[in-house]
Design a protein that fits this description.
Strand content: 15-25%
Structural class: alpha/beta
Radius of gyration: 19 Å
Helix content: 25-40%
Number of strands: 11
Bound molecules: zinc ion
Shape: globular
Number of helices: 9
Largest sheet: 7 strands, mixed
Distance between the termini: 34 Å
């Protein structure tokens, strides 16, 4: 574990917010979230070092890697197409680097729309999958592995920035790799969301200890500006199933596990395997839950307090 200063302002003074456990994958330990008293950035401190953190990513069941267990290459999903079309409308198909590209489905959608695509991903098995099955160029590592010559018009970070040990270093690197007036598109959980206020230490998006940082629209915009970007769109919007997932988790923790943490339950469980595809009945249930969640999501989004923040920013050349 290591102690760090605030990544946004360099401040040392903090106050504690939550002590949290890994409610999503049940890895051992408890973790402290603090807020910087100077700028308001929320971060984990102390935290696992860059080397230690890999032990907290259970590869077989970690959700971005599930496509690896499919028999044939899966198709991009609605969310991938939605993002791809929105970004294509912004500047037409040019070149894109997806940082933390997971199983590559967003890049597959972008390629179908005419973009020159490449990705970078730390997990070597996933990189091999993206190269061999999807035939997409991918580097193994992080944004610092991507060579300087790889200049692109767009860099995307989907559910990535909160996992990095220094988001400011990552954003500055993105600035170097972008063409003049290039764009950045990313999303992160919204610390200012109604869901975080409702579920507190049990908010799914805390995802301790993998999420090292938590942003509000204000702290994220300040960080983007500090790293040479002009935020064009800062949109707090919830994925439609986010609230339902939180409610199910809360019910599970409170009643089904009867006070036992997921950590304790997992400790006695056999090694997990990949989840099976949902049955038709389960698919119908998911559709119903989708419908039921629309009104509260609409309300949260209207109040600008949705559980995730989507950002589009442009490289500011005066830095
Ligand atoms: Zn600070």
């Amino acid at each position: 574990m290591e102690q760090v200063n605030c990544d946004l302002c360099g401040g040392k003074e903090t106050r504690p917010v939550y002590t949290v456990v890994d409610n999503n994958y049940g890895t051992p330990g408890s973790f402290s979230l603090v807020t910087c008293t100077a700028c308001g950035l929320v971060y984990q401190n102390p935290r696992p070092t860059a080397v230690e953190i890999s032990a907290y990513y259970p590869t077989a069941e970690y959700h971005p890697f599930r496509a690896l267990q499919e028999q044939k290459p899966p198709e991009p999903q609605e969310l991938h197409w939605k993002r791809a079309k929105r970004l294509t409308a912004l500047q037409g198909p040019v070149s894109v680097l997806d940082v933390g590209c997971g199983s590559g489905l967003f890049l597959a959608a972008m390629r179908s729309l005419g973009w020159k695509v490449c990705g970078v991903e730390p997990n070597p098995d996933v990189v091999q999958y993206v190269r061999q099955v999807l035939q997409i160029e991918a580097y193994e590592g992080d944004i610092f592995t991507v060579p300087e010559e790889e200049r692109v018009n767009l860099i995307t970070f989907w559910d990535v920035l909160e996992h990095t040990h220094s988001p400011t270093a990552v954003l500055r690197r993105a600035h170097q790799l972008l063409q003049p007036e290039g764009y950045l598109a990313l999303n992160v959980p919204n610390w200012a969301s109604i869901e975080r206020h409702l579920f507190k230490e049990r908010w799914i998006a805390l995802d301790a200890p993998r999420h090292l940082y938590h942003f509000t629209p204000q702290t994220l915009s300040a960080m983007l500006r500090a790293c040479g970007f002009q935020p064009l769109v800062v949109q707090p919007q919830a994925p439609v199933l986010s609230l339902a997932s939180n409610m199910l988790r809360w019910i599970g923790d409170t009643f089904l596990r009867q006070g036992q943490s997921k950590q304790a339950v997992l400790a006695t469980a056999p090694t997990p395997t990949a989840p099976p595809a949902p049955s038709p009945a389960k698919q119908r249930l998911i559709r119903l839950v989708h419908l039921a969640m629309r009104p509260p999501n609409f309300l949260f989004n209207t109040l600008n307090r949705g559980s995730a923040i989507t950002v589009i920013a442009q490289k500011d050349n005066i830095v």
